[in-house]
Amino acid sequence: MLYFFLSYARGPDDLFVRRFYNDLCSEVRVHAGVGHDVEVGFLDNHNIEPGQLWPQALVNAIAECSTFLALYSPAYFLSRPCGKEWKLFEQRSNSAAADEANRIPGLIPIVWLPPRELPPVAQAVHYDLDVPEDDYRRRGLRQLLRLQRMHDAYIDFLSTVTEHIVAAARTPPPPLGSLDLDFDRLESAFHGPVPGPDDTGELIPARFGTGQMIHFVVAAPTRAEAEAINRDDGYYGADPLEWAPFGPAQPQPLREYAQKVASEYGFESMFTGVDRLADRVKVAQQFNHIVVLLVDPWSADVAAHRERLLEYDHHRDHVSAMLVVMSAADPQTQAHRARLADLMHATLGNNERRLDEVMLRRSVLTWPSFEADLAVVLAEARNRLVADGRVYRRPPPGDYAPRPILEGP
């Protein structure tokens, strides 16, 4: 039996979260009287075996855990995957008796870093751990872990949480009736419906401007364009945004991996094809957004795409980062790797020279390396935006009195 599922937003604090998870597992085993080798908790990047589909592993864990620990932070409520985990546990708990003290039985909120505001679904959940430490209430569990002088307070907090987990395990919410669920299509409890294409074919966010915005521009052929250049068309669809370079083992479009990483780090994201690249760069400059170019090197073999990329490469305005994907599991790409690299240099040479080694990834080989590289790129892009970006603030709507003018005596 899993005593708890730890739901959190990935980010720079991952090492501290892992430490909390390990400490909590040890404490739960002691209080529950089980062996040291018994799995009592679930942490997504800890329990998922290589090659296992992480959404199904999450569904299975949420289906059987006794408690759901939500690590509240600003990034947590911006994360669509975290919202999906919450939604799934909420659905499981709907058939259980609810009361005013706790609308979702088994859900234990823990303040990791106090968020500025809570979404409605979180406002309805009231759960007081009765922790006396002012540092936890003002700054969250993160502060207790980071400061050595707060070690005793952290140990007390750990024991308190453990007591709640073990007590709640005596009356867990009912298990899920069916595990045949599509986690990718599940709605987030914190967001609106899953984004869909607008009338221009651009994938738009459910809530524009909620967090920092990333414009992902995908340079890839369609299936028909791939056939025209004698390229294996199994990696493509009717639209460039359907490009899935890590298939067939990982058949999801690349944009789904990119969106998952972006949401986990608190970003909203938009996706468009290379025909809108110049437009996205202009918008990003105006509103301090981030532009990431995701490139299939085979796109430069398609005349229309190569022309757009060359035209853009000679402009003064540039993207924030560029990732070129050359899947190691794609034999045709690996056979043409040297030619494709030369083609990229000839087509996007100015961008290659301008971008440093952090913001330019010339050959991404696997989907785990894509997610890891993109996480580093987004973290660095955010830091540079804070350091160098200009902030444009629109005045609030309404009528204004005439501007005062000083006149001479």
Automatic annotation (TrEMBL):
Name listed for the protein in its UniProt record: TIR domain-containing protein
GO BP term, example: signal transduction
One Pfam family recorded for the sequence: TIR_2
Organism: Dactylosporangium matsuzakiense
UniProt domain TIR: residue ranges: 1-149
Signal sequence range: none
Superkingdom of the organism of origin: Bacteria
